[in-house]
User: Which sequence fits this backbone?
């Protein structure tokens, strides 16, 4: 009998002692832990980065922005994945939480408007109020804005003021230039706070625009809060629905760059002015080639997913 | 029918069953937006007290959308099982709650009376239940369905694999699918929300998923969640289709906004019965979600919980293989925060199960709602404990096409291990055979997409 086996073998005395301790309620509910062992660090599992990808992650990244090939610890994420994910969430939440400063519009050469919403919290909960102009803004619009126009451009915060303050001025400037180049009468540049898409109906109706175009921050995705969308409507007035609009999304440097987007939006406006309608009934067939990806479904290489957090060493 | 109650000397009176149902709801931003919620917590309790004394027969006679105005109301009324209804007709809603919670009320008993319940009855009793009530009663209900695999058996917890892609790049979709399968996800369905709603792209994705499923002998089903008319055309193109999908709303008007009617879904379902590529008696897949009727001004002044239950009244006509509520996608104007989204998930699961549906849940949030990642992780465990049939699974929970946050490839096996649950028996065997799982633990090939060809 080896020494180890002797230890394993319960002696009668030890059994009696254990029983006594149990009866007295003094026994430990768990056996003692194993002796402290050497704990090797687990293999490094990291958020995909070019020099650390596994073959699968690299191949997948050529086809999708989905986070693939990230490995696991037990059934959970590696620490690095958790941190990158939290950074991406934070970026998206930050984009939603950012409020467009009141003086931003004037500083960027726009007439400042605000919807009937009075706080950011209310903006998120009351889309109906974000679709109508406040009385003061309506007054201001009547007093100062150009009327009887072909196109009314409106820059707005929507769900990401970060996007508005980012690519907003470039998109607005390029869009106005494209419209003027085509000889259309363009309305006074406007910028609206706490605005939803349908605000363009209220504004466009008031200034008598043939087409209203609202350019606004879109609902952020994970890790991205800088995308703008544009919604265009012919004969804007209260009562228009989503089916009456044409839209373009994903306008930012990594998606459709502002200059390119502005050109395509102007093509859409041209079609609306010519066909005197917009939305599902607008015939885009004659300009498919000209619109390129704006109307089609051609292959687009996936955007690169970037690491957001690095610890400085 | 008495529609008033007294609390500490103050009398609260209501003018209709619809108003009582709305005011009995726990707080939801969507009911506030519709202007129909209780003005304070006391009025809310008064409404619940009144509701507790109404009989199930009262609810049958007072649907929230009138019989003459709505085909859903007519369909539910005209097809209600008379024998099952007569067993419960005289119970008050309060007594019905207690009956459901009694230990001796088994899942089989609940199944026997379920065809006699209208959606309004399931919504009413949900309003008298706390979250844990909803879980206890929901976990009792038994709903088992079969297509290529058997879903909803006791001790099972399944997942939809959702490999969406912003431009429907089929290779991208397949990469996500392989990764998800390697985490043991996808036993309910591999289901893609397409970016492009055309028959050709629907058929192309289905062909690719079918090839993957056949090549690897995976006992699950596939689906592309385009509009039902698009899927009908895709069937005409001759593509394989295991499940047919459609989003539902709780009123005829709401369904019109979705471009559907009972007649259309009847026609689509008959076509699918004849042409489907799956086995088993269940082959339809429906998604719902509180707030959809209001978002198209089709709510008829009714609250979003009752309207959600009416979606289930619609769905059960087709004995579907999958139904899930998409609980946090619609935005904070309908469900403001983690508390409201959690409550909605538990309500919807309970109401759907009570009405005999294999309820799953897309436990999720958009980045402009006040829900945190931790809250959605908690909700998964609650849903699993409540007996929810399946949750969604995506890479890191991130839907790169629809831009919202759902549950992940890593979450599904985590919740299964926590709750001691397993995937469908057919899929379970496949996971063991591939080495992805070793019984109830991750196997040697867990998380290795190379295992799927």
Assistant:
């Amino acid at each position: 009998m080896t020494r180890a086996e002797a230890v394993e073998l319960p002696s009668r005395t030890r059994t009696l002692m254990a029983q006594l301790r149990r009866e007295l309620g003094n026994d430990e509910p768990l056996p003692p832990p194993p002796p402290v062992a050497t704990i090797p660090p687990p293999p490094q599992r990291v958020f995909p980065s070019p020099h650390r990808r596994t073959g699968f992650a690299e191949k997948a990244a050529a086809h999708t922005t989905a986070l693939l090939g990230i490995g696991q610890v037990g059934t959970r994420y590696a620490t690095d994945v958790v941190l990158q994910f939290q950074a991406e969430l934070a970026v998206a939440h930050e984009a939603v939480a950012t409020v467009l400063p009141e003086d931003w519009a004037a500083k960027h050469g726009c007439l400042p408007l605000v919807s009937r919403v009075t706080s950011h919290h209310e903006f998120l909960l009351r889309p109906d109020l974000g679709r109508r102009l406040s009385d003061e803004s309506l007054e201001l619009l009547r007093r100062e804005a150009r009327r009887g126009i072909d196109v009314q451009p409106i820059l707005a915060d929507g769900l990401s003021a970060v996007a508005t303050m980012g690519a907003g001025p470039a998109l607005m400037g390029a869009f106005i230039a494209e419209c003027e180049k085509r000889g259309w009468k363009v309305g006074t540049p406007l910028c609206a706070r706490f605005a939803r898409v349908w605000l363009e109906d209220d504004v466009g109706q008031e200034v008598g625009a043939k087409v209203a175009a609202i350019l606004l921050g879109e609902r952020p995705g994970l890790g991205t809060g800088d995308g703008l969308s544009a919604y265009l409507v012919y004969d804007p007035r209260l009562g228009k629905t989503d089916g009456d609009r044409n839209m373009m999304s994903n306008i930012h440097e990594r998606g459709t760059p502002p200059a390119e987007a502005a050109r395509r939006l102007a093509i859409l406006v041209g079609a609306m002015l010519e066909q005197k309608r917009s939305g599902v009934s607008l015939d885009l067939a004659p300009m498919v080639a000209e619109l390129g990806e704006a109307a089609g479904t051609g292959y687009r290489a996936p955007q690169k997913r970037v690491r957001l957090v690095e610890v400085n060493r | 029918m008495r529609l008033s109650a007294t609390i500490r000397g103050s009398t609260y009176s209501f003018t209709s069953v619809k108003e009582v149902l709305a005011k009995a709801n726990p707080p939801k931003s969507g009911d506030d937006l519709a202007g129909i919620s209780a003005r304070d917590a006391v009025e809310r309790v008064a409404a619940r007290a009144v509701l507790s004394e109404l009989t199930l027969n009262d609810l049958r006679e007072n649907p929230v959308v009138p019989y003459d105005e709505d085909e859903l109301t007519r369909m539910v009324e005209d097809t209600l099982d008379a024998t099952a209804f007569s067993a419960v007709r005289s119970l008050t809603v309060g007594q019905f709650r207690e009956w459901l919670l009694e230990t001796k009320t088994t899942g089989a008993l609940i199944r026997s009376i379920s065809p006699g319940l209208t959606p309004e009855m399931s919504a009413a009793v949900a309003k008298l239940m706390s979250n844990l009530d909803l879980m206890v009663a929901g976990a009792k209900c038994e709903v088992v369905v079969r297509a290529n695999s058997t879903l909803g058996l006791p001790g099972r917890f399944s997942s939809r694999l959702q490999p969406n892609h912003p431009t429907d790049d089929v290779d991208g979709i397949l990469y996500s699918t392989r990764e998800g399968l390697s985490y043991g996800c996808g036993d309910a369905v591999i289901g893609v929300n397409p970016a492009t709603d055309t028959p050709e792209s629907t058929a192309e994705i289905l062909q690719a998923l079918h090839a993957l499923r056949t090549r690897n002998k995976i006992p699950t089903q596939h689906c592309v969640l385009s509009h039902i008319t698009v899927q009908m055309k895709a069937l005409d193109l001759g593509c394989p289709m295991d499940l047919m999908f459609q989003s539902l709303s709780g009123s005829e008007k709401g369904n019109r906004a979705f471009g559907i009617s009972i007649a259309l879904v009847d026609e689509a379902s008959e076509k699918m019965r004849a042409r489907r590529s799956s086995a088993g008696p269940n082959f339809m897949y429906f998604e719902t979600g509180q707030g959809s009727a209001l978002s198209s001004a089709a709510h008829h002044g009714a609250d979003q919980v009752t309207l959600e239950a009416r979606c289930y009244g619609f769905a059960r006509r087709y004995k579907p293989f999958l139904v899930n509520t998409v609980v946090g996608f619609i935005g904070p104007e309908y469900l403001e925060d983690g508390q409201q989204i959690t409550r909605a998930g538990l309500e919807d699961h309970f109401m759907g199960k009570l009405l005999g549906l294999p309820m799953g849940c897309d436990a999720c949030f958009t980045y402009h709602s006040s829900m945190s990642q931790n809250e959605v992780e908690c909700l998964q465990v609650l849903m699993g404990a409540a007996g929810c049939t399946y949750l969604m699974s995506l890479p890191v929970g991130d839907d790169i096409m629809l831009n919202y946050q759902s549950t992940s490839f890593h979450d599904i096996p985590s919740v299964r291990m926590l709750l001691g649950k397993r995937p469908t028996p057919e899929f379970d065997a496949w996971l063991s055979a591939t080495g992805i799982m070793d019984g109830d633990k991750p196997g040697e090939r867990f998380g290795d997409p190379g295992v799927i060809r």
In short: Chain B has 21 helices and 16 strands. The domain at 4-140 of chain B is CATH 1.10.220.70 (Annexin V; domain 1). The two ends of chain B are 64 Å apart (CA to CA).
